[in-house]
């Protein structure tokens, strides 16, 4: 949950009506040995995240708002409102929250294997098999499909917000920017993360479920190419992975960067412009499940080939027209 998007107020009094989820601060101090650095997992826009163990033995992750920050209250409330109503095996579970004094802390089920992006690039973690990747994408698609059929747009779909439990089951996380729309088009300020933002939403400020589909298409590209959504390529401007992959597709050479037997076409359909040409999340899910079904014999044959070998050939970004992305990034930063 990133405070970069927050428009919250500064009052901390009774921020949410779900008192049954409330956990005393002293219990959280105990769970983390007083927020000891040894328990620190990472940091996002909202604040630091710690692992901990509650007195009943439940392993948890605690997201603690930066004390100096006056932002994040609106996202804190949205997160609690959304997650206290939603339950699905592919959504992260909110166990409770703490809003004592100046503290705002969200308490989640602890996800043993962290987030999807750290398994794709930028870490020493072992490469995941194709089958595992596809199953993770299917899990995340199920979570998003459930959200969309519940009338909710997640609004910040990215690989860092797909968490993995001890069995590598995908759980969609971070609902601070989510919107309840019940299928209608909503006018709103642009929110989301660089590299994942639907260009149509960016231009029109009209939010629909297809914006999540676009962002999920970028996640599929990351999974297929083992590259981050924004790639700093040699001396050039930052390169947007989605546009780079679509350029290869336009040239009819998608197989140059990804194995055509996998789910490249599904990823490309998610990135279609205009948004009405994109599939629904249910169709994406069906396509991925079908890809898994088709892949089973192929996966068995290739199961020892790490993705890095496939992505070795995709380091040439010289064909990308970065002008429109650079414009988008520039505008977002301003
Ligand atoms: N329930 C959880 N279990 C385990 N690790 C978690 C959990 N929730 C978050 N993390 C980890 O904590 C770190 C910070 O996450 P956080 O969601 O605050 O920020 P982010 O998604 O990295 O960035 P942003 O604030 O821009 O969305 C990440 O490494 C994330 O994987």
From TrEMBL:
It is found in: Membrane. InterPro entries: ANXUR1/2-like, Kinase-like_dom_sf, Prot_kinase_dom, Protein_kinase_ATP_BS, Ser-Thr/Tyr_kinase_cat_dom. Its main location: membrane. Residues 35-299 form the Protein kinase domain. It holds the Pfam family PK_Tyr_Ser-Thr. GO terms for cellular component: plasma membrane; plasmodesma. GO terms for molecular function: ATP binding; protein serine/threonine kinase activity; transmembrane receptor protein tyrosine kinase activity. Transmembrane segments: none annotated. This is Protein kinase domain-containing protein. It comes from the Eukaryota. It is a single-pass type I membrane protein. Keywords: ATP-binding, Glycoprotein, Kinase, Membrane, Nucleotide-binding, Serine/threonine-protein kinase, Signal, Transferase, Transmembrane, Transmembrane helix. Coiled coil: none annotated. ATP binds at residue 63. The keyword Kinase applies. SMART domains: S_TKc (SM00220).
